[in-house]
Design goal:
Blueprint (H helix, E strand, L loop, with lengths): L1 H16 L6 E7 L4 H14 L3 E8 L1 H9 L5 E4 L5 H9 L4 E15 L7 E2 L1 H8 L17 E5 L4 H9 L11 E3 L2 H9 L4 E6 L8 E2 L1 E2 L6 H5 L6 E9 L4 H11 L4 H7 L7
Parallel strand pairs: 1-2, 1-3, 5-10, 6-7, 6-8
Antiparallel strand pairs: 3-11, 4-8, 4-9, 4-11
Helix pairs in contact: 1-9, 2-10, 9-10
Length: 271
């Protein structure tokens, strides 16, 4: 939490110090979790700044971080912080990624709306994803095999799930992997026996959110720390942002501009 407070302070400093931008293009790549936040902010930003064009693509947090290290993007969206090996690689290339927390999020287990299960514990989730619990009847559901669906390993959401739920233990090989949060929602909505997880901003009526340890994932429980699978969402820049990139980051973290759009996208604003 101390590091997150530091990042928020840096965000506030940027509000004061960001320079004026000239016309140009901004490329944003990375996390599919951060994607709807980036899209919503970019859409409004371009309305106010019609001379600046923004292109956005997904691919996962790992791909976004790789792109910022390789200087093939201006901003990397990520639903996790940099790993030490990524820091080392960046420094070896003379690149110094600067993190800006742009939102908070909680990762919510989801099932088909027809599934009677309402809550799972962290221990039950871990056992299911390790392949130790295989049938819904073992956790209060019907006598059906659990279809386990996970994000792919390049996903920041996967890495947070691996850290906070799996405690660094491996997801069992029988789990189906999906490349995006949108693909997760579609897969779960079409399978009555599926279990997966998504960021809160991706919740729709087509899937049912489960509580974890009887705590509902929400803005309140994310901010007060009672929901056990929460995280910050980041935008990384190559060095301290200036020009158009600085102007965009400044807009994204602004309490009455970008942060209102974070909430509109279904995620949790910083302030």
């Amino acid at each position: 939490m101390k590091s997150l407070r530091t990042i928020v302070i840096l965000n506030m400093i940027l509000l004061i110090s960001a320079g004026q931008a000239g016309a140009g293009n901004i490329a944003i790549k990375g996390s599919t979790t951060v994607l709807p936040v980036a899209q919503k902010i970019a859409e409004e930003f371009m309305k106010e700044n019609p001379d600046i064009k923004i292109s956005i693509s997904g691919g996962g947090s790992g791909e976004g971080i790789k792109a910022i290290i390789d200087s093939t993007t201006d901003i990397a969206d990520s639903s996790r912080f940099l790993a030490q090996k990524e820091v080392d690689l960046a420094v070896s290339k003379g690149v110094y990624p600067v993190p800006f927390a742009v939102a908070y999020d909680c990762i919510v287990p989801v099932v088909h709306p027809g599934n009677p299960v309402k809550s799972l514990t962290l221990d039950q989730l871990k056992a299911i994803y390790k392949g130790e619990i295989k049938n819904w009847k073992e956790v209060g559901g019907g006598d059906q095999k659990i279809v386990v669906i996970s994000r792919d390993t390049s996903s920041g959401t996967f890495e947070v799930w691996e850290e906070k739920v799996m405690k660094k233990e491996r997801v069992y090989p029988g789990a189906m992997m999906q490349a995006s949060s949108g693909a997760i929602v579609q897969a779960v909505s079409n399978n009555k026996n599926a279990l997966s997880y998504i960021g809160i901003g991706y919740l729709t009526a087509n899937v049912k959110a489960l509580t974890v340890n009887n705590v509902k994932g929400s803005e309140e429980t994310t901010l007060n720390g009672t929901y056990p699978i929460s995280r910050a969402l980041y935008m990384f820049t190559k060095g301290w942002p200036a020009g158009d990139v600085g102007k965009f980051i400044n807009y994204a973290v602004h309490p009455t501009k970008g942060q209102k759009l974070v909430k509109a996208a279904g995620f949790v604003p910083l302030y």
